[in-house]
Amino acid sequence: MLFYTSYMNKYKSHEQWAALAPLDVIRVETVLSRYPIHRLAKQGRIAIELQETTEGGETALWWEVSHNLRDGQPRPLAYKLDTLVVNRRIEAAGRPLPRIIRLGSLTEICRELGLVDSGANTNKVKRALLQNASAFITAKIRYKSAAGAARRIEVGDTRYAVVFTGETLPDGRTADAVYLVLHDFYREILDHALVRPLDYDYLKGLPPAAQRLYEVLSYALFAALKNRRPRARLAYSEFCRLAPLTRHVEWERVRVQMAQIHAPHRKSGYLAGVEFEATTDREGRPDWTMVYEPGPKAQAEHQAFTTRGGPVVLEIEPPPAPPEPPPPAQAPPTAVEPAPTGLAAELAARGVSRAVAAELVRQFPEERLRRQIEVVDWLRETKPQRIKDLGAYLVGAIREDYAAPAGFEAKAARTTRETAERAALEREVEARKAKAREREERDRIQAYWEALPAERRAALDAEALAGADPADRAAYAAATAPPVRRMLRAGLRDAHLRRL
Predict the structure, then answer these.
(1) How many other CB atoms are there within 10 angstroms of residue 145's CB atom?
(2) Residue 27 and residue 94: Cα distance in Å, rounded?
(3) CA distance 1 to 117
(4) Are 245 and 44 contacting, i.e. CB atoms less than 8 angstroms apart?
(5) How far apart are CA 158 and CA 138, in angstroms?
(6) Partners of 20 in the beta sheet?
(7) How far is it, in rounded angstroms, from Cα 392 to Cα 404?
(8) What is the pTM of this model?
(9) How far is Cα 32 from Cα 38, in angstroms, rounded to an integer?
(10) For the chain, what is the HEC assignment?
């Protein structure tokens, strides 16, 4: 790797390169951690909803996270709690994972997060735990298991429930600390997913947005190092989507935002250089490709993680060079020629020259252009052999107003069908949410009941029977079989407890 060797040679004179430091590794699953759950922006609310479709129009990915209105969106503290404390306990628990995992007391969690032990901080940690526990995930994803098998999961649920000190655990014990009760789909993924190593100490010292960049970018950096490529690339829009962060379209705001996120990685030597290439996304909005040169820390991590028997140690990086100044406030370093916009951009993207695209937009109505673009896209996907020159075919289709071919489904019909499918999925999700809420309420009632002394239980049973609907009371009195009486009595009691 000449690009890396030349970089390292500059620092061979430094004694620090002779030193070694323990590498505290955490292994994180590679399925759910790819997608956002927490809002890392300091202010406002960011909708977390990702959707990807195949060329045939099928849903390849659906990822949506909704939150509890009382506790709010999981925020940076909840993110740190999940990635530094929860993931550490999950790793330590081994596989297969137990259903119940002990986190520790609120004081211990504060200490682990580097927070001063105070009433205010323990309350913040408690709220962050509730935010994480109530983050409802609606997902349809595919992934590869550690055994190499292709797996698919479609679910609407939270990842885990939280049980605080003094409350009753599902196995009947009284919690002596904070515990998590992992839900089935989450355990299934954790038991079967591939894992990847990350530097725990480095994670712990990073601000939330910089930590998320480390998690997202490490895939591309390691791939570049493995394949001996000098740089890795990541779209700015993609990082904002996966973080999630507010996406800007003005270069100056992008520059300032990313300079702050890149700063700790440049200082540590994880990144040796960052460049921006101006481009546009599919909708024609301004975007930038971020081009990263791996630094000595990234190289050292890659070597430690891929060495047989490793990771054991990580070489300390040399004293970092003074941070490079951020890019100038003017246009990005590699600005491109302004691209056509709107319909002209859509035509140009399909092989029509810019001049002809502009002429067609002026000459023909928008409806004709959009209809022929839609037909051409369909033909390209379903009958690619029919079109030899996409741009020439599209120009002819617009000028001559070709009729739609047999089998073509118009956008309106497809939209209607997809809307119906989406509505059906939403109804299913709502039903699952209702079922989850019902289960949680039932678990709370059961935990409350089991924690009561015998005399209080007897009193509540009597109150429930006295306050029951006359017809329900009569049905209970008429029952003779003990199992039936117990079932009816439990129903009367649960209804009474819900009214309290």
Answers:
(1) 15
(2) 11
(3) 47
(4) no
(5) 9
(6) 315
(7) 17
(8) 0.60
(9) 12
(10) CHHHHHHHHCCCCCHHHHCEEECCEEEEECCHHHCCCCCCCCCCCCCEEEEEECCCCCEEEEEEEECCCCCCCCCHHHHHHHHHHHHHHHHHHCCCCCCEEEEECHHHHHHHCCCCCCHHHHHHHHHHHHHHHCCEEEEEEEEEECCCCEEEEEEEECCEEEECCCCECCCCCECCCEEEEECHHHHHHHHHECEEEEEHHHHHHCCHHHHHHHHHHHHHHHHHHHCCCCCEEEEHHHHHHHCCCCCCCCHHHHHHHHHHHHHHHHHHCCEEEEEEEEEECCCCCEEEEEEEEECHHHHHHHHHHHCCCCCCEEECCCCCCCCCCCCCCCCCCECCCCCCCHHHHHHHHCCCCHHHHHHHHHHCCHHHHHHHHHHHHHHHHHCHHHCCCHHHHHHHHHHHCCCCCCCCCCHHHHHHHHHHHHHHHHHHHHHHHHHHHHHHHHHHHHHHHHHCCHHHHHHHHHHHHHCCCHHHHHHHHHCCCHHHHHHHHHHHHHHHHHHC
Total residue length of the chain: 500
Q: Which residues pair with 141 in a beta bridge?
A: 153
> Which structure tokens are listed for 439?
């289960």
- Decide: 342 and 284 in contact? Cβ < 8 Å: yes
Cβ 158 vs Cβ 134: under 8 Å? yes
CB atoms within 10 A of CB 6: 9
Per-residue pLDDT tens digits of the chain, which is 500 residues long: 444 444 444 444 344 433 323 368 888 998 999 999 999 877 667 889 998 888 777 888 999 999 888 888 999 999 999 999 999 999 999 999 999 999 999 999 999 999 998 999 999 999 999 999 999 999 999 988 888 899 999 999 999 999 999 999 999 999 999 999 999 999 999 999 998 889 999 999 999 999 999 999 999 999 999 999 999 999 999 999 999 998 998 989 999 999 999 999 999 999 999 999 988 888 888 899 999 999 989 888 888 777 644 443 333 333 333 344 445 444 454 444 455 678 888 888 888 888 888 889 989 999 999 988 988 888 888 887 777 777 878 888 898 888 888 888 777 777 888 888 888 888 888 888 888 888 888 888 888 888 888 888 888 888 888 888 888 888 878 888 888 888 888 888 888 887 87
